[in-house]
Design goal:
Elements (H helix, E strand, L loop, with lengths): L5 H25 L2 H11 L13 H29 L3
Amino acid sequence: MKELDIQKTALTFGVFIGAWHLVWSILILTGFAQQLLNFVFWMHMIISPYQVTAFTLTQSLILIVVTFVMGYVGGWVFATIWNRMHHK
């Protein structure tokens, strides 16, 4: 099997997770987040105990940066384990 490029894998994971949370921030900014959250809980037959608060740019940036870093680290760990398990 081909080795994964650790940097590219880490960046891919980081960008994916960061972008996912960018979308969440946009949903909050546009006022659709609570409706989506309520729908997701409804689909799972759960009464939502959560309420979305007002959008703040600082919190949004912190969310996106932290999740990017977590995704990057997760991607790095994944690629490292993958490469070691498939090393010939």
